[in-house]
Specification:
heterodimer; A: Ubiquitin-like (UB roll); B: alpha/beta; Rossmann fold; 9 helices
């Protein structure tokens, strides 16, 4: 089950510079475990104590996973996952 | 409608139906036209409430200087209020914002201090906090953490929406300071317990996320996740496409962030249609398109417009 994962600039030192990588898993948590095997160190940058880190946002098909089960959010083949740092954003 | 002054005319904006973009008579979209405020954006509400509260608290008195990290609308609103109430204002703004913003801020008398483009508004917040320490007599209203920002929407935007649309099932707005979503969200949840509160967060080019480390990330102090039902990340391409659809199909000339909000609103509308549920979805038109003309968002193909927008803060 292939999931396409978009990696933010700040974590690309762990993916040999790749902007998107592939991973596998039935949930976001399993996906992170799989990503950590392929790109050692990425897991602890994303998850701490069984939950997403405060300044990490993970989107499943553009929806924030914190609202659809967090790291237990289920994944399906062909889903896209986007990882982004939390920022203040734009034109406020 | 007659008012004693410009500030008195704030709010009470129209809520208009979108007969062409609504998927069916049972699933309807409604646009809250916040560009019909004194300086043309929803930020007039928060700016006025924050200044009024600071005056009540004795933090602000004529002749004082307001400092605010803002790349646009809040600064423009604050500059207007400052001019009318007798304050000076300094805005800290990322250098990669549209030319109109600088012109508008100067026009209302604001002084502008540019912060580096890299890091976007995060960097502007950091610079402003440093300047506040260096200038202890300046007053930073700090829209990201000022409860009066959310209260403006709890006391005005929320009640206006419920009065115009008692059958409301969803509220969708852009997520920035989170003030609109927190204020309207809390009010509507009290009045309509089943209501869904949906955030549309702009997804920028990589430059904006160029933090030095993840610990430099930023979550506004006002943000309370429990108020939201869900939150969508909207790429620039989708925001641009929806901005144009809103113009082409409904005649509404809105800013680009509104396209992002409409994208999320159409997403929840499609879910309601699939579930066979009735829905009355209100979303916020945060401002008009005028300030974004120089970005090229409204000309040429979508691909061209998207390329021009890359690296800019579009919402």
């Amino acid at each position: 089950m292939a999931i396409e994962v978009s990696i933010p600039t700040i974590l690309r030192n762990l993916t040999d510079g790749a902007k998107t990588v592939e991973g596998e898993g039935g949930t976001i948590g399993e996906l992170v475990t799989d990503l950590d095997k392929r790109h050692p160190g990425i897991g602890e940058r994303l998850v701490e104590g069984g939950a997403l880190r405060r300044f990490v946002n993970v989107y499943l098909n553009d929806e924030d996973v914190r609202f659809i089960g967090g790291i237990d959010a289920p994944l399906a083949d062909g889903d896209t996952v986007t990882i982004l740092p939390a920022v203040a954003g734009g034109m406020r | 409608m007659r008012f004693d002054s410009l500030l008195d005319s704030l709010g009470r904006t129209p809520l208009v139906g979108l007969p062409r973009l609504s998927p069916s008579p049972e699933v309807r979209l409604w646009a809250k036209l916040e560009d019909r405020n004194p300086t043309g954006s929803i930020k007039d509400r928060a700016a006025w409430y924050m200044v009024e509260q600071a005056e009540k608290d004795g933090r602000l008195a004529p002749g004082r200087t307001i400092l605010e990290p803002t790349s646009g609308n809040t600064g423009i609103s604050l500059a207007m209020v400052a001019r009318l109430r007798g304050y000076r204002i300094v805005c800290v703004m990322p250098e990669n914002t549209s030319a109109e913003r600088t012109q508008l801020l100067r026009m209302w008398g604001a002084r502008i201090h540019y912060s580096p483009a890299e890091g976007g508004s995060n960097e502007a917040v950091r610079v402003a906090k440093r300047m506040a320490e260096e200038n202890p007599d300046w007053v930073m209203l700090y829209q990201y953490g000022n409860p009066a920002n959310a209260r403006a929407h709890y006391e005005t935007t929320g009640p206006e929406l419920l009065a115009d649309l008692p059958e409301i099932t969803h509220f969708v707005a852009g997520l920035g300071t989170t003030g609109t979503l927190m204020g309207v969200g809390r009010y509507l949840r009290e009045q309509r317990p089943g209501v869904q509160i949906v955030a549309a967060e702009p997804r920028y080019g990589e430059l904006v996320y160029g933090l030095r480390n993840l610990d430099e990330g930023f979550v506004p102090e006002l943000y309370d996740e429990s108020v939201l039902t869900t939150r969508f990340s909207v790429p620039a391409e989708a925001a641009l496409r929806r901005t144009r659809e809103l113009l082409d199909q409904e005649g509404i000339f809105a800013g680009i962030s509104t396209g992002g909000t409409l994208h999320a609103a159409l997403g929840v509308a499609a879910r309601a249609v699939r579930a066979g549920e009735r829905a009355d979805i209100a979303f916020v038109v945060a401002d008009g398109g005028w300030k974004y003309l120089s970005t090229g968002a409204y000309e040429g193909t979508l691909e061209e417009a998207e390329a021009r927008l890359d690296g800019q803060l579009w919402a």
